[in-house]
Amino acid sequence: MIECNKCKAQINLKVKEERIPGTELDAQYIQCEECKKKYIVLLKDGKTKAMLLRAKNMQARYRRMHGRKNVAEVEAYRKHMENYQRTIQRYQLQLRNNNKNLIKDYL
Ligand SMILES: [Zn+2]
């Protein structure tokens, strides 16, 4: 469980999503039920959505590779997937940084 920084209550980890008004950005967040403080989980723009879809497709492909491709090939693909996850994480940090003032209610 996570404790709310503001009121110290335990936060329900159910992730909700909403559009940030006046933008093309969607915020995934968890919310303290006591004081209603929101905490960002993921900030999504069009590029993030495309990247997440690609990552999901890569995982499906990786699962299909098992038992069919040789071990080295499967391992190389796993590394490729991990690199892509890091690319997504870097982009997430950049996106949050570029929209600091828009997400201040979620931090
Ligand atoms: Zn709270």
Describe the structure.
- The chain folds into two domains: 1-44, no CATH class; 46-102, no CATH class.
- The longest helix has 28 residues, at 71-98.
- It has two helices and five strands; from the N terminus they run βββββαα.
- The chain is an alpha+beta fold and 107 residues long.
- The chain has helices spanning 46-65, 71-98, and strands at 2-3, 10-11, 16-19, 26-31, 38-44.
- It is elongated.
- The strands form two sheets. Strands 3-4-5 form a three-stranded antiparallel β-sheet.
- Helix 1 runs antiparallel to helix 2 (71-98).
- Strand 4 and strand 5 (38-44) form a beta hairpin.
- Residues 4, 6-7, 9, 32, 34-35, 37 line the site of zinc ion.
Count structural domains.
2
Radius of gyration: 18 Å
User: Mean pLDDT, nearest integer?
Assistant: 96
Class from helix and strand fractions: alpha+beta
What molecules are bound to this protein? zinc ion
User: Could you estimate the helical fraction of the residues in percent?
Assistant: 40-55%
| Share in β-strands | 15-25%
- Distance separating the two termini: 18 Å
Shape: elongated
* Largest sheet, strands/sense/barrel: 3 strands, antiparallel
Q: Count the strands? A: 5
Order of helices and strands: EEEEEHH
Low-confidence stretches: none
Strand order of the largest sheet: 3-4-5
Number of helices: 2
